[in-house]
Amino acid sequence: MNRKGQFSIIAALLVAVILIATVIVTYSAIRSSPVSDMPQVLSAIDETNFALKQVLGFTIGYYGSVLQVTGNATYAKMLAENYLHSGLANIANMHPDWGTSFKVNRMSLQARWYEKASYSMGDLEVSYNLTGLGIYGISYGVTCKLNVNIIGTANGRAYLRITKDENESLINLGKSNFKFYKYNYERSSWEHVNPAIEPTALSDGTYIIDLPAGVDPDSYMVQVEDQRGIIVVASSHTRYAYTFDWNPKITLIDRESFEGSWPPSGWSANNGWVNANVTYNGTFSASFSKKGNIASGNLTTPVLNCSDASAILIEFWYRNDGCSSGEFLLQCYDGNTWRTIADLGANSSGQGWLRYYQKLTDSRYFKSNFKIQWSAVDVEKDEYIYVDYVSVKKEISLLIPNEPMVVELLQNGTMRWLGQKLQFTMQAKPVPPIPVKSIRVNQTINGVNREVPFQIEDWASDYKIPLGLANNMSVFSNRHMLVFLVNRDVSKVTIWWDGRDTAVQTRYAYTNFYFNDNPSNRILRNGRLTLQWSSSGFTITSTVGGMTAIADLMRINTRYDDTDPEWAYTIYNGVVRDIIHGEPEYSGGVTDCYNFYAHVVITLPANTTYYTYQLRLIFLESADKPRTITDLCPIRIRTTAGVTLSALTENGTLGLYPRVSAAGTLFYNMSGVWQHRWSQLLNSSLTRGFGIMFPRDSNVKLYYFDSMAGGNTGCLNVSDSRKLIEFSPVKRLRVSGFTSSLDICWYGAVVVFDNTPPIYRVVNGVPTGLWVLVAHPPIVSVVAEG
Questions:
Q1: What is the mean pLDDT of the segment spanning 635-649?
Q2: Which among 662, 678, 673, 671 is positioned nearest to 727, based on CA atoms?
Q3: Are both 185 and 329 inside the same structural domain?
Q4: Is the peptide bond before 435 cis (omega within 30 degrees of 0)?
Q5: Secondary structure of 684-742 in HEC code, one letter for each residue
Q6: For 158, phi and psi rounded to 5 degrees?
Q7: Mind listing the pLDDT tens digit for each residue in 373-431?
Q8: In the listed set 342, 364, 395, which residue is the last one of a domain according to the structure?
Q9: If we measure between CA atoms, which residue out of 675, 670, 669 comes closest to residue 652?
Q10: Domain count of the fold of the chain
Q11: Among residues 158, 337, 365, 481, which one has the fewest Cβ atoms lying within 10 Å of its Cβ?
Q12: CB contact burial 540-574 (16+ within 10 A = b; e otherwise)
């Protein structure tokens, strides 16, 4: 495996700054100590022992500072040992007449960070002589330690207990000693921020600290530094748990808060149900109270077609002022009968607004005439019922193929698949700046939790240029991405970390489980798919079983680059994927297209029948030489196989499913029909073929040049007779007078299949295939745990 890496110049400079600053502070602290000014009070031995303890404290602080910058415990200990010996020499020079000499018998440094209970500590055993005073063979052992324990968080305040050495409460820290980690999304980096006001310190070492603005109270990290310079980085969590929901949701009622006409369109409200100004959200809610002899009534939703549902999600807020059990019911209609599914009046009176959520999986409710109603039953005088902010969704179980998809986790918490962000149900959580070697990945697969392979990659230019696998002696930053595979059997992914400074990288982060690559012959193999790179031009031949497809990359104005591609095999024999990239050069230039740069990134995921592409064009300002583009085809896929193939292409959607066209033609951005996210050519037995698929973002970018051309120019060009598919942002109309700058990138995947899942097929009347992964990727939720 290609695993190049080294410490950056910036890290080295930071270490140098830390060393200089620490040495100055240490020596000034020792020299200015009142102990040295009062030799009549303290003996020479006491003064020497005190100085040794001070030097150990500063050494631990220096060790932590280097560890924080580099993540490399070995390197940090080496520098800290040098620093300690420098400190001992300084102690000896404080009283030359004492003739002080030291021998370090043992020194150990240890840190356990990024956990609720974190610490930094060091032990030192020294033998020394004071020959000028006739003192020999003194042995001295000392321990320094700083403990930080995050007790909890409440009302925007963090509760920390801090002790030192032998569990002695530390109560003299101020706001400058606390630095919380805050993620700056604009700069894509972590920042340190101090609390705005001084913390409250209790006698047992407990600190009550107002969290700075922008710090997530559910998942935060804080650096604590004491007067000795010892630092500890503690975390309120030790892992992120990501839940993957593979079944798409269709919204049937979207946060109905009864703000318009009463009752809302399609709803029915009888016998005392009205809209009221006691609300959870907005101005009005639905309310019931006894009016005269009317003590019962129903609020009913419109008819909701749930005949194709696999689950029904019901969510709303309610308030019960006085009703008891049996007086406030939630009911659902199963097509024949109203059935009570919850007694909202039981044990809820006087508790204010309460959230109700239920996922119905009982198939009796999966009917075309499903409805929900809130029923008031024999309500007494001065009893009130309120309902607000109603949402109802149905979950659809698609036939998802059991094929891996590649997930990229970026530092800002974003997850990507084929260059497009996965949807989160809540705010994503940035990955903390922890050592790469500490990171682990677990997955819950068919209910079983286990550690799985992953790789951490180093990228540049906003994740556009791959650099290789990350050095395991580095800290996770905005140039890193954590990459792993998931499929439909994965319900949960847990990213966690080992906070010990002695932690070693798990074998799941560097062991090759899948690949058998031969870059010297330009061949990559992932166990199912073989890629062969050409020796000239940007052409890739992919083979699965007996099916072969050829991809020709980056055609501009009918011109391909036919020079030596000089592919860079950035990662081969990888853990979960290989990465190769190169730059088409177009020797002699491209007619009528000037001042541009092209870049291609190909990844081969483990155990898949597809590879992915990232095709980038950068057009520079070209006012002096306007461009005319008549043909732009970033990727063409074809085959020379002697078999008759038929085309199937997405041509719009019908609900969750694609409309499929069997035509060999141009598919462009027609009125109301822009979804052309995949196309495939396959044989008559529907077992062998090839195709292309890409996410929504790249589908939209297929039409990027339409506005420049003054009409629909971008399209998929599908020809079953010529056995090819072209992804062509410029095809039907030319783009003239193009002088502005533009940086554009298209992402997608090339699929080859031979008795393996195609992009599209129908099983028992239900569409399935790899198209599901681009049209309906999983929805993710995340919580901080530990």
A1: 95
A2: 678
A3: no
A4: no
A5: CCCCEEEEEECCHHHHHHCCCCHHHHCCCCCEEEEECCCCEEEEECECCCCEEEECCCE
A6: -100, 140
A7: 999 999 999 999 999 999 999 999 999 999 999 999 999 999 999 999 999 999 999 99
A8: 395
A9: 675
A10: 2
A11: 337
A12: bbbebeebbbbbbbbbbbebbbeeebebbbbbbbb
Asked if residue 172 and residue 261 are part of one domain, the reply reads: no
Strands 646-654 and 715-719: unpaired
Please indicate, yes or no, whether residues 42 and 144 belong to a single structural domain of this protein.
Answer: yes
| pLDDT, position 271 | 84
Here the CATH number for the domain that contains residue 317 is 2.60.120.260
Please answer whether residues 570 and 579 qualify as being in contact, where contact means their C-beta atoms are separated by less than 8 angstroms.
yes
**691 within some domain:** no
CA-wise closest residue to 274 among 392, 389, 384? 384
| pTM of the entire predicted model | 0.89
Longest distance between any two alpha carbons in the chain, whole Å:
106
Please give the Cα distance from 619 to 738 (Å, whole number). 9
Provide the 3-class DSSP secondary structure of residue 175: helix
* Nearest of 381, 213, 394 to residue 304 by alpha carbon: 394
Q: How far apart are CA 350 and CA 464, in angstroms?
A: 56
Same domain, residue pair 225 and 263: no
- Distance, in Å, from the CA atom of 224 to the CA atom of 148, rounded to the nearest integer, reads 8
Quote the CA–CA distance of 733 and 646 in Å, as a whole number.
Answer: 27
Q: What is the pLDDT of residues 563-584, one digit of tens each?
A: 888 899 999 999 999 999 999 9
Please, what is the average pLDDT of the chain? 93
The sheet that has 539-544: what strands, in order across it?
523-525, 530-533, 539-544, 547-556, 632-638, 724-728, 715-719, 666-668
pLDDT tens track for 707-746:
999 999 999 999 999 999 999 999 999 999 999 999 999 9
| Residue 175 shares a structural domain with residue 283 | no
Residue 709 falls within a domain, yes or no?
Answer: no
Residue 212 has pLDDT above 70, yes or no: yes
Could you give the strand order of the β-sheet that contains 490-497, starting from the edge strand earlier in sequence?
A: 448-451, 439-445, 490-497, 239-245, 779-785
Helix axes 73-94, 44-70, angle to 10 degrees: 150
- Identify the band that residue 35 occupies on the pLDDT scale cut at 50, 70 and 90: very low
Range of the domain at 390: 249-395
Nearest residue to 676 via CA among 633, 723, 718, 735: 718
Task: Note whether 297 and 356 are same-domain residues.
Answer: yes
559, 590 contact by CB (below 8 A): yes
Is residue 242 in a domain?
A: no
* Confidence at 639, pLDDT banded by 50, 70, 90: very high
Residue 3's nearest CA partner among 569, 411, 502 is: 569
Pair 268, 181 in one domain: no
Domain boundary among 395, 414, 449: 395
Say how far apart CA 604 and CA 572 lie, in whole Å.
9
Q: Identify whether residues 176 and 271 lie together within a single domain.
A: no
Q: At 667, list the tokens.
A: 């598919």
Q: Does any domain span residue 179?
A: yes
